[in-house]
Amino acid sequence: MNKPIVAIDMDDTICHLVPKAIHYHNELFPNFPLTIEQINNFDLSGIWHPDCTEDIFFGRPGLYEELEIFDEYTVEEIRRLTDSYDVIIVTAARPASVAEKWNWLQKHLPFIPFENFFVAKRKYLLNFDLLIDDGPHNLIAAREAGRQTILIPRPWNLQIQREFRLMDSWKGMNELVDQILK
Predict the structure, then answer these.
(1) How many other C-beta atoms are found inside a 10 Å radius of the C-beta of residue 31?
(2) Which residue intervals of 13-167 are DSSP H helices?
(3) Which among 119, 144, 140, 130 has a CA at the least distance from the CA of 174?
């Protein structure tokens, strides 16, 4: 029997990318400090230093291997999800960061097999029953495709938070997924 598929985003859903990228931005441009609260959408070009680029902000070698786990419940909740669901990790990634992201997963979630690691910007094209993500574009597209969703609230998705089920911690995520899919 096939298990329902739970797709989980990586950046700012199971690990903290934007806070680490802000940290390095602020080291490079100390007279132009950013805060996470300033990021109210995915277009950062209007708020970072004029000399900063997407390559500088998200392309620092080793950045993705340094990321901190989302919270102290993340690993155990995802491990528990694998008991009842086919858990896949779906992440948008630049080609240079794919190996770093896989290395991070192997360090923190070694029970996720390689065949359950997908790199895709248009996540809605994949077959899954439920998506856990922070990206408004991913959640809206998944919902429009008839999929269930859980939103990880972040400043950049504030405008859609009323439209989705929210979980600001991984604590209790397994129970919420069970409630939605069973």
Answers:
(1) 6
(2) 17-28, 54-58, 74-84, 98-108, 136-144
(3) 130
How far apart CA 78 and CA 177 sit, in angstroms, is: 11
Q: Where are the alpha helices (DSSP H) in 35-172?
A: 54-58, 74-84, 98-108, 136-144
Place of tokens 């199971």: 14
Q: What is the pLDDT of residues 28-52, one digit of tens each?
A: 999 989 999 998 887 777 888 788 8
42-45, Cβ contacts within 8 angstroms, sequence gap of 24 or more = 42/135, 42/136, 42/137, 42/156
Residues 87 and 82: their CA atoms lie apart, in Å, by 6
Predicted pLDDT at 66: 93
8 A C-beta contact, residue 157 and residue 143: no
